[in-house]
Amino acid sequence: MSEVLTATASTSRELIAFRIGEQEFCVDIMAVREIRGWTPATPLPRSPGYMKGVINLRGAVLPIVDLGVRFGLATSEPTARHVIMVARIGGRTVGLLVDAVSDIIQLTDEQVQPTPDVASDHVKNFVKGIFAIDGRMISLIELERIVPESEAEAA
Length: 155
Known about the structure:
There is one protein chain. By secondary structure, this protein is mostly beta strands. It contains 4 helices and 10 strands. The longest helix has 8 residues, at 2-9. It starts with a helix and ends with a helix.
């Protein structure tokens, strides 16, 4: 039985890495449907500060979450250099605004370190773990926590 657990624990997975400011983050590549250039979003009244608004994605309304604002980082107004990662979170499709997508990383669960205790609860809410690769520190993001299921969780 322990052989099965060992094989499962060392399963390799692919992640897509992206930048917000000088920091690097990554998410499971299987959640990302496409990567597209920045399109100005139509703001929605009374939406949370991290919601940039909505865009038209081939006839569907796609909400855009500014990940920099969501993570509490300094952000700038989006430019043509920014990208939107279209991701499937829970049962919803959401656009995630980031500065740039950097690369695809393959790693095992053993390479991921737990989020340090010195991190704030706000950070721990989104960051599943941290790993070092090629001299870079990259935070693994828990996508399900990016967009709350209800307004109660957003408050």
